[in-house]
Specification:
With 290 residues, the chain is α/β, with parallel strands linked by helices. The chain has a domain at 2-144 and 177-203 and 264-278: 3-Layer(aba) Sandwich (Rossmann fold), CATH 3.40.50.720. Helix content is 44%, strand content 14%. The strands form two sheets. A seven-stranded parallel β-sheet has the order 3-2-1-4-5-6-8, with helices on both faces. A two-stranded parallel ribbon has the order 7-9. Strand 5 (103-109), helix 4 and strand 6 form a beta-alpha-beta unit. Helix 1 crosses helix 6. The protein starts with a strand and ends with a helix.
Length: 290
């Protein structure tokens, strides 16, 4: 049995359906607070569980051969955070996988490191280090920003003005990647034991700035004018003032500042190893999605 933790999220639900299509037995774990982003196949078993509950995780992982860590605590209902979900929760699941002698496939962030300006990337790197030091056989998939997530974010921030908000300078090129391509790579990682002990990076083939992406979203919707901007100084103030009362907003402000300076991702080794993965430019993906 394959256990997908965070299996109702945008990536996890796609991975679960792909694995079912390959004839695998799949169980997905979520807190049950929101419906799956992508409707799950009828054969996917859905169970409620919280990675912050180590006893519950131990019971759910006990029968698994492979565990997919597809959750994150960057945002969402229930007072989640990268520290409680990614830092602590991932360790609960990895510990349970050790006891069950299960493999672990972890979804991380492209460019994850101890010095990455993005907080979630630093936390994910700490989890990677913990996983590598465990007894589990592991594979890590590091993904760039999901294009579909940012299509939604920009459309939602447009509001009645039909002018999306660009957070910060918005002039740093980013390899927005189709989440379906990431799901395909995770599928490989789950089903191919030869990939154990490897870190696989994936990015999109077309690098666009946030400003360019917001402009494309406006063009696709037929909206006139230019994107709005929330300047970096305003983000710094927001990060400071909201931290005590709305840590989620402070976290988003800090992430926006980090995205202005993130380094580009080189995924040519992954693309060469998996030529079956499509590489759809974000501009064409936006047109297809619309």
């Amino acid at each position: 049995m394959i256990l997908v933790v965070g299996g109702t999220g945008r990536l996890g639900s796609l991975v679960a359906n792909r694995l079912i299509a390959q004839g695998q037995e799949v169980r997905v774990v979520s807190r049950g607070l929101v419906p799956p982003v992508v409707p799950l196949h009828d054969d996917v078993e859905q169970v409620v569980g919280d990675v912050r509950d180590p006893a519950r995780m131990q019971g759910l992982v006990a029968e698994a051969e492979v565990v997919v860590l597809a959750m994150h605590g960057f945002a969402g209902p229930g007072g989640v955070s990268p520290r409680t979900v990614d830092h602590q929760g991932s360790r609960h699941v990895i510990g349970a996988a050790e006891q069950a002698d299960a493999d672990v496939v972890m979804l991380s962030i492209a460019g994850a490191s101890a010095t990455n300006p993005l907080e979630l990337a630093r936390v994910k790197y700490g989890v990677e280090e913990h996983l590598r030091g465990s007894r589990c056989r592991w594979t890590v998939v590091r993904s760039d920003a999901f294009a579909q997530t940012w299509f939604d974010v920009l459309a939602e921030t447009a509001g009645p003005s039909h002018r999306p908000i660009v957070f910060g300078d918005g002039d740093n090129p980013i390899g927005w990647v189709d989440v379906n391509e990431v799901a395909g790579l995770v599928e490989h990682a789950v089903l191919e034991p030869s990939l154990r002990g490897r870190i696989l990076e994936i990015s999109g083939p077309e690098r666009l700035t946030m400003e360019q992406l917001a402009t494309l979203v406006m063009e696709q919707h037929g909206w006139s004018g230019n994107p709005r901007h929330l300047p970096r100084e305003a983000l710094r103030v927001m990060a400071t003032l909201t931290a005590p009362v709305r840590p989620d907003l402070a976290r988003m402000a800090r992430a926006s500042l980090a995205m202005d300076v993130l380094s580009p991702v080189d995924d040519h080794l992954t693309r060469a190893a998996f030529p079956d993965l499509p590489a759809v430019p974000v501009s064409r993906l936006l047109a297809q999605t619309a």
